[in-house]
Amino acid sequence: DTAVSQTPKYLVTQMGNDKSIKCEQNLGHDTMYWYKQDSKKFLKIMFSYNNKELIINETVPNRFSPKSPDKAHLNLHINSLELGDSAVYFCASTLGETQYFGPGTRLLVL
Amino acid sequence: SQKIEQNSEALNIQEGKTATLTCNYTNYSPAYLQWYRQDPGRGPVFLLLIRENEKEKRKERLKVTFDTTLKQSLFHITASQPADSATYLCALEDTGGFKTIFGAGTRLFVKA
Predict the structure, then answer these.
(1) How many CA atoms lie within 13 A of A87 on its CB side?
(2) Statement: residue A20 has pLDDT above 70
């Protein structure tokens, strides 16, 4: 009965490749997010979707393209991966104030 | 510029003592502030929310205060235990909603 799930948990890939991370929430929440947590542990918002509509795009390079096929899913596709994309990516959802986070996807670009 | 700041250095305390973590913010007027706990290799987990009209909130051994004049929140863990060792993040809502801003977190180590 996982609330927010992400796949894969680990992703190791070469520079220049394209990869996707999937997120699903079974909480019935309207709003979903993608965050990036770098090596300094700073959690930065990347995107926010409300009812499948993009609400926030925090000046993320257009190599990153989120897609929300329905309210329960928010996937993240990354083109032409760069070394600096190595980080932990967290998906989260909320109905109002409190955010519920997924377990994270650890991306390492070699 | 807008900032949310937490003690960047780790906090080491002895089991049984009270841990106090600080969160200061600049150029925000949040309607509420939240505290989250993050364990290594896991996502943040919500602990407490305090609103601007509340001075103090408690939950079991946790206590949060919110001073909108000082633009500061304090997070206390009383009778701390080694299991309380984790990183604690404060977070507030940016103006306009839909965006939560997180501090960098303070790492707490509780020694037995």
Answers:
(1) 20
(2) yes
Contact, A87 vs A102, CB < 8 A?
A: no
Count of H-run helices and E-run strands, chain B: 0, 11
> Partners of B51 in the beta sheet?
B32
Residues near A37 by Cβ (< 8 Å), separated by ≥ 6? A43, A44, A87, A88, A89, A90, A104
Round the CA-based radius of gyration of chain A to a whole number and report it. 13
Interface of chain A against chain B, CB under 8 Å?
A: 4, 31, 40-45, 48, 50, 55-56, 90, 92, 97-104
pLDDT per residue as tens digits for the range B26-83: 988 888 999 999 999 999 999 999 999 998 999 999 999 999 999 999 999 999 999 9
Q: Do B87 and A55 touch (CB under 8 A)?
A: no
Residues B94, B98, B102, CA angle at the centre, nearest 5°? 50
